[in-house]
Amino acid sequence: MTRLLSAILAAAIAAAPIAATAQPVRRPAAVETVRVDKARIDAALADMVASGRAAGVSALVWQDGRERYFGTSGFADREARRPMTRDTLVQIWSMTKPVTGVALMQLWEQGRFQLDDPVALYLPEFGAMRVLAGKDAAGQPTYGPASRPITVRDLMRHTAGLSYGMRGTPVDAEYRRVDPMNLQNDLPEMGRRIGGLPLLFDPGKEWSYSSSVDVQALLVEKLAGQPFEAYVRSHILAPLRMKDTAWTQPPANLPRLAATYDGPAGKLVRQPDERTRVMNFGPRRLTMGGAGLVSSIDDYMRFARMLLNGGELDGARILKPSTVRLMATDHLDPSIKERFFLPSKGSVGFGFDFAVRTGQPNDPKENRGAVGEFFWDGAATTLFWVDPANRLAAVYFVQRTPFDGTLHHDIRQAVYGASYLGPKGD
Among 63, 112, 115, 383, who pairs with 107 as Cys (CB 3.0-4.6 Å)? Predict the structure, then answer.
């Protein structure tokens, strides 16, 4: 399962490679009105299946306080001829990360920590970190002390220097060897294993997608004084009435789970169900902060709508509006040039567990979107985004690996139109 997780995350990145003062994103009124075109989105979904890029897809768009679109095409399970429906459950992989970030920021609002606190203040295993310095005359890696401690802010914007085991460095090789995401590790054991590894770079010097959101989950557990999974269930999922969303699913939900399909377009092969049964229906000790949630499209839209509404939905206050704005602000200093795969997401920076659009699309190949939107996706090509300029949120579900960015391009173009540029940035 650990090798599976690393492979899926690596595929997502292959498809897609700090800071002083945060760079705020202006959210001007949209200069052109986005009008959701049902026929255009229907056609795009149908083409995704007809072209062999996906076995089944669904999309849900919310704008101006009401549902503007829902549609599906294809199958949740092609072999069983089970169609993709509104009730289908999918493995959302890294779309778990924003949920974890919201949980941690709830504790920040309560004054449990400060963003620039050293992580080691709460998790001592992250003190005295070493950093990859180069190679010696024999070609062996050398390490030196980190220039400064990892802060909570670093964890939330992927500038901590932690690995995810997906690059070709000696640090990544060590990450794979110690196997922190083994499902039989609990969160404290995961933290001990990650904390004992060297860093890829000095904290704050680069952006690199990493296991830092899993460390955020451990921090939630430590600060809240209760298991991470239980905290998220009681403070986010239950108040938002996200009844289908969980790391641990009841056996009765297994028939609703979409199959995952892998391979090149036109040659997709159904993957064994055992992959998600172990993570979501079988015995495990680890609840990852960076992956693992299963959700339905309506459930995840409730999470997206909460963010669009400034942290509140149907009377449930999850975060303050100012906290949502803080999370959805680009926190990467322009001097940070090394950003691993982030530029593949378009004209974006990064906030707290969200990518943040900072400029208009540069060419037709870039995903359509509006300056100020914030979003993230999952290794099986799921996607969501929140667009304050157009008062819009969208959720797109599919279960296809390796990650296929053409599907994201096409669903965004279907929502916005091929020529949409949106408001200009600063």
Answer: 112
Indicate the length of the chain as a whole number: 426
HSE value, Cβ hemisphere, 13 Å, CA-based, for 195: 21
Structural fold of domain 115-224: Methane Monooxygenase Hydroxylase; Chain G, domain 1 (1.20.58)
Contact 271, 261 (CB under 8 A): yes
d(CA 2, CA 266): 28
Cα separation, 11 vs 61, whole angstroms: 27
- Which candidate, 350, 25, 298, places its Cα nearest to that of 159? 350
Which residues are bridge partners to 246 per DSSP? 294
DSSP string, 113-173: --TTSBGGGT-GGGSS-EEEEEE-TTS-EEEEE-SS--BHHHHHHT-S----S-SSSHHHH
**Domain ranges in the chain with CATH number 3.40.710.10:** 2-105+227-416
Burial degree of 344 (CB within 10 A; 0-12, 13-18, 19+): middle
Encode 285-307: b = buried (16+ Cβ within 10 Å), e = exposed. ebbbbbbbbbbbbbbbbbbbbbb
CATH 1.20.58 range(s) for the chain read 115-224
Distances from the Cα of 64 to the Cαs of 68, 235, 328, 387, 388, in angstroms? 9, 26, 20, 11, 10
Token pair listed for 398: 């599919």
Question: Any bridge partners for residue 313, and if so which?
Answer: 316
Residue-wise pLDDT for 334-343, tens only, equals 999 999 999 9
Strand partners, 289: none
Q: Phi/psi at 193 (nearest 5 deg)?
A: -70, -45
Residues 6+ apart with CB under 8 A from 69: 36, 38, 41, 59, 60, 61, 415
Q: Is the pLDDT of residue 5 over 60?
A: no
The pLDDT tens digits for 262-275 are: 999 999 999 998 76
Fold held by 2-105+227-416: Beta-lactamase (3.40.710)
